[in-house]
Amino acid sequence: MSDLGLGVIDQYDISVLRTLKGRGAIILETEQGYKRLMEYKGTPGRLEYMGSLLDYIYGHGLKQVDNILKNKEGSLLSTDECGDKYIITDWFYGNECDVKSKNNVKEGAALLARLHNITAAGFKDYFNESSKAPPISIPATNNLLVEYEKHNHELKRARVYIRGRKHKSQFEYNVLNNLDEYLSYATEATAKLLNSDYETLERAAIDKGCICHGNYNYHNIIFSKNKVAIVNFEKSGSGILIKDLYLYFRKVMEKYDWESTIGHEIIDTYNSVRPIPSNEYEVLKIMLMYPEKFWKLVNHYYNSNKAWIPDKNLEKINKVCYQQKRKEEFISHM
Fold first, then answer.
1. Which of 91, 135, 158, 182 could make an S-S bridge to 36, C-beta 3.0–4.6 Å?
2. Which of 7, 2, 12 is CA-nearest to residue 81?
3. Cα 237 to chain centroid, rounded
4. Per-residue pLDDT band at 1 (split at 50, 70, 90)
5. Is there a contact between 125 and 265 (Cβ–Cβ < 8 Å)?
6. Where do the DSSP E strands lie in the chain?
7. How far is 254 from 266, CA to CA, in rounded Å?
8. Banded pLDDT at 144 (limits 50, 70, 90)
C-alpha cells in the first residue's frame, strides 16, 4: 500500500509516534501501543463479522489477537479522500514463529488449541445477539469433499495435457512418471473422506458456529516479548476445527521432512490443551493422506506460462516425492 492511507489516521483517537513499513501495511508506533494500518477490500458484512469474532475471542481470554479499532464515528472502516477504504488493527512487534525452533512450533500448536477452545461453540449466538443490524451469515470454510473432487479433476486434466506435449522438460517427465501414483492417493483419500464422519462433522460445526482461523501457519503467529499472538483472521469461517491443525501441521512437517518425533510432539501438545475427538482425528489422517503439495505444484504449472519452467519446480517435485514415503510412514503410526 502507499503512504496515502496515512490520511485516515486523523479519524482515530490515537497518537502516532512513528511509522514503519510492514508487509502490505503500515505499522504505527503509537502512545496506545503498536497498530497496523491496511487497505480493506472486503465487504462490510465480512468486516462486521471479523470485528465481532475478534471481540469474542478477546473477551473470552485470548487477548493477543489483532482487534480492529473503531474510528471516532464508531465505524470499523475508514475512507480517505480518494475513496479508498482502510482499517486499523492492534499489532504486535516481534518475530514470526521460528519453524526451526521445536519449542516455537509446539507453542504454536498449544495456542491454536486455546483458540479452538474459545471458537468451538458460542460465537454464533454471540454474533447474532451483538449485531445491531439483522444477523449476517457467518462465512463457511471450504468443503473438503468438493475441494478434493475439484483437485482430482485438475490432476487428470494436467495428465492429459502433459502426455500431449511433444517436447517435455525434465520437470514434466518427473510429474508424468509420478502422476498416476499420486492420483491414486488422491482418489483413495477422497473415498475415505466420503465414508468417514466428515460430512456430519462439517454440518454440525457450521450449524454450531465453530470458527476456524482459516490460514493458521507460522507466518501468522507472532512472538512478542513474553506473549504469543495470532493475527490475520481474514480467511476465518465456520467448519470442522481440525482443518486448522492440518494446515499448520502439514506446513511444519514439510520443513522437518516428516520427522516422526516432532510430529507426535505437535499433536500431543495440541491434544493436551484441546483433546481431539476420535472422529476428527480420523479426518486429520485422511487429510494428511491427500497429496496436496503434489497437486499444488502440478496445478500451478498447468495454470502458468509453460514456455519457461523454473529449475526450482524440478527441485520441489523431487522433494515432494522424496517426502511422500516418510509421510506415509508417519501416518501409519498415527
1. 91
2. 7
3. 11
4. very low
5. no
6. 16-22, 25-30, 33-39, 78-79, 85-90, 95-96, 211-212, 221-224, 227-230, 237-238
7. 13
8. very high
Distance of alpha carbon 18 from alpha carbon 36, whole angstroms: 12
| C-alpha to C-alpha distances, 326 to 60, 259, 329, nearest whole angstrom | 39, 8, 5
Which residues are CB-neighbours of 282 under 8 A, at least 6 positions away?
A: 196, 197
Q: Is residue 235 within 8 Å of 214, Cβ to Cβ?
A: yes
Q: For domain 102-332, give the fold.
A: Aminoglycoside 3'-phosphotransferase; Chain: A, domain 2 (3.90.1200)
C-alpha cell at 225: 516479548
Confirm if 125 and 222 have CB atoms less than 8 A apart: no
Angstrom distances, CA of residue 312 to CA of 254, 301, 328: 16, 12, 24
Residue 214 per-residue DSSP state? S
Residues of the chain with CATH 3.90.1200.10: 102-332
**pLDDT value for 132:** 53
- Tens digit of each residue's pLDDT (9 = 90 or more) over 212-251: 999 999 999 999 888 999 999 999 999 999 999 999 999 9
**What CATH class does 3-93 carry?**
alpha beta
Report the chain's mean pLDDT, rounded to a whole number.
93
Look at residue 197 and tell me whether its pLDDT is greater than 70: yes
Q: Is 7 exposed, middle or buried (0-12, 13-18, 19+ CB in 10 A)?
A: middle
DSSP 3-state assignment of 78?
strand
